[in-house]
């Protein structure tokens, strides 16, 4: 057995995205329905000790990067304790957090002190009323305070994630790009994805990210750049002379499956080899038996498909598997 986490297509996996909760203080339109969500009871959510044990088993196999997600990870009390536990594991070099930013101002400093490396903040509008509409109640001011607190704490880079939606926030592209002119901020535009039981409704909000390049080019000169730390699947650009960058993540129109290096662990202890498909492997009963945990991750990797079929789904074409019915919040954003 290879000591590294390599799938049948030769892709080496060194990155684990860990959802610490399926709960969230917001109800973003692309993430979960406004009502009717059934959340997992506390006893079915992995404890910090279980999460740490799983990562300890995987670090010798080459897992180097961790991202904590949710739901909203900061609704989980004591998250800095988990960060400290994970940062103490030999071989773990990078621990990042994806958050909606509402609670970030109160936690940024202690998370940095515990060993958190980077933050990604969901930031889908610069207009308070529109932000509240997209998030179904979110307070833009609190997110802005979270961004300031992250800058003060010394996180670098700070990435702001914008899910671009046709007819919703696609008129704000230049406003987002201006944020990169004077500050070392990375704006990442993300295509609207068909995750969860969403029917065909997502198609009306889908917009190719070529819109970003055209909009930027009409106002500024920009250039490709390749030195954005931890930028993963994003194609990165910089407005000439700007302090920050902007990136395009286009899983639908131009998927990046060929270079995928990530696995996902859901809050209830399931390994997901691919975000889009329904395949899951429950690792929780094996926690504490490192060999069994490793064997199940190898098994999950062995079933990882070469690609997802989001592009086919957009075009109404026949797809090659069963898409997940879990909402993004239940998987880990």
Give keywords.
333 residues; twelve-stranded mixed β-sheet; 10 helices
Rg, nearest Å: 19 Å
> If helices are DSSP runs of H or I spanning 4 or more residues, what is the number of helices?
10
Shape: globular
Structural class: alpha/beta
Name the strands of the widest sheet in spatial order.
7-8-9-6-5-4-3-2-1-10-11-12
The counted number of beta strands is 12
Q: How far is the N terminus from the C terminus? A: 31 Å
Q: In sequence order, what are the helices and strands, one letter per element?
A: EHEHEHEHHEHEHEEEEEEHHH
Low-confidence stretches: none
Sketch the major β-sheet.
Answer: 12 strands, mixed
| Arithmetic mean of pLDDT | 88
- The proportion of residues forming helix, as a percent range, comes to 25-40%
How much strand? Answer: 15-25%
Describe the structure in brief:
The chain is α/β, with parallel strands linked by helices and 333 residues long. The chain is 28% helix and 17% strand.
Walk me through what this model shows.
With 333 residues, the chain is an alpha/beta fold. 28% of the residues lie in helices and 17% in strands. The protein is built from 10 helices and 12 strands. The protein has a 12-stranded mixed sheet, covered by helices on one side. Helix 6 links the parallel strand 5 and strand 6. The longest helix has 14 residues. It is globular and about 55 Å long. The chain starts with 14 loop residues before the first strand and ends with a helix. The model has no long low-confidence stretch (mean pLDDT 88).
């Amino acid at each position: 057995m290879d000591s590294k986490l390599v799938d049948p297509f030769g892709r080496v996996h060194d990155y684990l995205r860990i959802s610490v909760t399926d709960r969230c203080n917001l109800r973003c339109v692309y993430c979960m329905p406004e009502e009717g969500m059934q959340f997992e009871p506390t006893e079915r959510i992995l404890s910090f000790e279980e999460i740490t044990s799983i990562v300890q088993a995987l670090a010798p196999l080459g897992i180097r990067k961790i991202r904590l997600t949710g739901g909203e990870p900061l609704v989980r009390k004591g998250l800095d304790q988990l960060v400290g536990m994970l940062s103490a594991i030999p071989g773990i070099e990078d621990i990042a957090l994806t958050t909606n930013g509402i609670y970030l101002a109160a936690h940024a400093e202690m998370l940095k002190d515990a060993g958190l490396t980077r933050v990604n903040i969901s930031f889908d509008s610069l207009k308070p009323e529109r932000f509240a509409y997209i998030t179904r109640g979110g307070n833009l001011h609190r997110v802005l305070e979270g961004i300031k607190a992250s800058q003060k704490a010394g996180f670098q880079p700070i990435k702001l994630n914008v899910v671009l939606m046709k007819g919703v926030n696609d008129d704000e592209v230049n406003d987002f790009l201006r944020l990169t002119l004077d500050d070392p901020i990375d704006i990442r535009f993300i295509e609207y994805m068909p995750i969860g039981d969403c029917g065909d409704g997502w198609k009306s909000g889908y917009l190719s990210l070529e819109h970003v390049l055209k909009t930027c080019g009409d106002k500024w000169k920009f250039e490709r750049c390749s030195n954005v730390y931890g930028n993963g699947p994003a194609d990165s650009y910089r407005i000439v002379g700007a302090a920050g960058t902007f990136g395009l993540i286009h899983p639908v129109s131009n998927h990046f499956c060929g270079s995928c290096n990530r696995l996902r662990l859901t809050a209830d202890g399931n390994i997901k080899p691919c975000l889009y498909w329904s395949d899951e492997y429950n690792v929780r009963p094996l926690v504490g038996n490192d060999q069994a945990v490793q064997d199940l991750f190898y098994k999950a990797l062995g079933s990882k498909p070469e690609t997802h079929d989001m592009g086919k789904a957009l075009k109404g074409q026949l797809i090659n598997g069963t898409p997940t019915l879990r909402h993004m919040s239940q998987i880990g954003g």
